[in-house]
Write a structure and sequence with these properties.
34% helix; 619 residues; 28 strands; alpha+beta; Creatine Amidinohydrolase; six-stranded mixed β-sheet; globular
Length: 619
């Protein structure tokens, strides 16, 4: 196939993206001098190595620019990974999503990329750390459980794991960005659907049942949800980065820079709790320790440094589940109504985009960047777009075979005959969206139609399933894979992730995945996105968002759940092979398309309405 091509925007002059850029995120030539400088700094501190995770103090998926230490050191900009720098070797450990990206972004002569599935971080340390070596780590960037695993690996190698008080990279990073200072705003009560006082009462009841004296909120998503606030400290997710402490009895404290908090948000927080500067967190943790308090820390996001502060002051850190996570995952009626409204608005924008794409793509002038810009522009036309919910994945040809592809100026391809995959989402104040559609450019091959239809069958299996209360995502994940397995095929990512309400597009603990052990409950929003990827040629993914709901099964004696589909946009007819579908699947697709037409056509006119009518006709 033809390689990437640089092109100027076509004559129709597409707008520039407001929320996304396509610049090269890293320069491999900078890796060698930076690794050398780090080694020199470590030697001066008496350290033989250092661990650099892709993490901030909150263990978030998106980290602010000033916390992107792994990217600064290695050039790697993916959403997960760890580097270990020793005196004579350095490694970048990433999962299978980033095998190609890591090799392209770093200097492989200096930093060796390693697949996590083959050699996890702890195993690499155990095999490569010299005996008697001192391996440094930043205790603010690792969880309690994470540090315990590291200690075991280091001890097995005969070394010592050493916490540092100052991250050595910070002194080397001369042009380090300033910490984010986005405003913290109140989230509208009609979108939140529950007052902060009510949420706090439920949380404190959970703390009483757990027999703990206080909860440290280390997850900014939990902080935003609990206090009905939103911010803008990280890309594409309206998060205020900060902490909270909720005692079992009494008023909570929110740790946020006071200058960031708007008057409205300050008044709302002040009505139920106290506001303190971030620097006061350490003092209050020590006070809890001195009071011999048992303090719950979120095992998924709480830094090991928090546990150390409590323990050394005489308290008992209790790493476990944050009770807020499940409360936040089970959306209330107002949140669900808002999300449904957001999806209707978003669906119409995507249809207008697909109408344009169907017309322009066959001309051979469009590029991936053009396609991303046009989709963002359609969402902006709603007048309600706050941000995209993640960087749009827009892959043409072989780029579509990279599940987490991000187009840059150098990777940008023209849309040529074959397949174009676009995975995108939006942040509106009333809801968060995430949708993937795979589009045929020209006439698809028989193999493409076969693979697309198998992916669609798996997608339909999840959409149509009924399952007993207590079922987890791990128990449903295989349903989406069966049509592919029957042809000797599969995909390497989970079938679906949880989604927040004007929060993160990736929300736990619910998920449709082999790792999804949390029982699914009514109100939880998830994605339904099986795929198929033929490396070097094309990729396919189909995604709708779904909500867990209770089903009434006549004659049944168990509580049964199913999924409500809330994403509205036609599937790609040119890629469907009807002979692979059974009568029930065809009926479901036809009924879904009838609803798409009924829900979206009133918002459309002209070419878009004509396009939608054709796209929604019965199979």
């Amino acid at each position: 196939m033809l390689g990437p091509v640089m092109t100027e925007s076509p004559a129709h002059s597409l707008p520039t993206c407001r929320f996304q850029s396509f610049s090269e995120p890293s320069n491999p030539a900078e890796v060698a001098p930076r690794v050398a400088a780090l080694r020199k700094a470590l030697a001066a501190q008496g350290l033989d190595g250092f661990i650099v995770p892709r993490a901030d103090e909150h263990q978030g998926e998106y980290v602010p620019a000033h916390m992107a230490r792994l990217a600064w050191l290695t050039g790697f900009t993916g959403s997960a990974g760890n580097a270990v720098v020793l005196a004579d070797k350095a490694v970048l450990i990433v999962d299978g999503r980033y095998t190609i990206q890591s090799a392209e972004q770093t200097d492989t002569k200096v930093v060796a990329p390693v697949k996590m599935e083959e050699t996890p971080l702890e195993r690499w340390i155990e095999a490569n750390l010299p005996a008697a070596a001192r391996l440094g780590y930043d205790p603010w960037l690792h969880t309690v459980d994470g540090v315990a695993r590291l200690e075991k690996a280091v001890e097995a190698a005969g070394g010592t794991l050493t916490a540092v008080s100052q991250n050595p990279i910070d002194a080397l990073w001369s042009d380090r960005p300033a910490p984010p200072a986005a405003a913290v705003k109140a989230h509208r009560s009609d979108y939140a659907g529950e007052t902060t006082a009510s949420k706090l009462a439920r949380i404190q009841e959970a703390l009483t049942k757990a027999k703990v004296d206080a909860l440290v909120i280390s997850d900014p998503h939990a902080l935003a949800w609990t206090f009905n606030i939103r911010g803008g400290d990280v890309e594409h997710t309206p998060l205020p980065l900060g902490y909270g402490i909720i005692p079992r009895e009494g008023r909570p404290t929110v740790f946020l820079a006071p200058e960031k908090i708007t008057n409205e948000a300050g008044d709302a927080i002040g009505a139920v709790g106290e506001i303190a500067a971030p620097a006061a967190l350490e003092q209050q943790l020590k006070a809890l320790g001195k009071a011999r308090a048992k303090v719950r820390l979120d095992q998924a996001t709480a830094a090991a440094a928090l546990a150390t502060l409590i323990r050394e002051a005489g308290g008992t850190p209790d790493a476990g589940a944050d009770p807020i996570a499940l409360m936040k995952a089970r959306k209330n009626g107002a949140e669900l109504d808002g999300t449904r409204a957001a999806h209707l608005r978003d669906g119409a924008a995507v249809v207008r985009y697909l109408t344009w794409l169907t017309r322009e793509a066959p001309k051979g002038t469009l590029t991936e960047i053009d396609a991303v810009a046009a989709l963002e522009a359609e969402r902006l036309k709603t007048g309600l777009l706050k941000d995209v919910s993640f960087t749009t994945i827009a892959g043409a040809g072989p780029n579509a075979a990279l599940p987490h592809y991000r187009v840059t100026e150098s990777s940008n391809r023209r849309l040529e005959p074959g397949i174009f995959l676009v995975d995108s989402g939006a942040q509106y104040e009333d809801g968060t969206t995430d949708i993937t559609r795979t589009i045929a450019v020209g006439t698809p091959t028989a193999e493409m139609r076969d693979r697309y239809t198998r992916v669609l069958k798996g997608h339909l299996a999840i959409s149509r399933v009924a399952f007993v209360k207590g079922t987890s995502g791990a128990q449903l994940d295989a349903l989406a894979r069966l049509p592919l397995w029957q042809a000797g095929l599969d995909f390497d990512h989970g079938t679906g992730h949880g989604v927040g309400s004007y929060l993160s597009v990736h929300e736990g603990p619910q998920r449709l995945s082999k790792l999804g052990t949390t029982p699914l409950e009514p109100g939880m929003i998830l994605s339904n996105e099986p795929g198929y990827y033929k490396q070097g040629e094309y990729g396919i993914r189909i995604e709708n968002l779904i909500v867990v709901e209770e089903r009434n099964i006549p004659g049944g004696d168990r509580t049964i759940y199913g999924f409500e589909t809330i994403t509205w946009c036609p599937y790609e007819r040119a890629l469907i092979e009807p002979s692979l579908l059974d009568a029930g699947e065809i009926a479901w697709i036809d009924a879904y398309h009838a609803q798409v037409w009924a829900k979206l056509s009133p918002q459309l006119e002209g070419d878009a309405k004509t396009w939608l009518e054709a796209a929604c006709r019965p199979l």
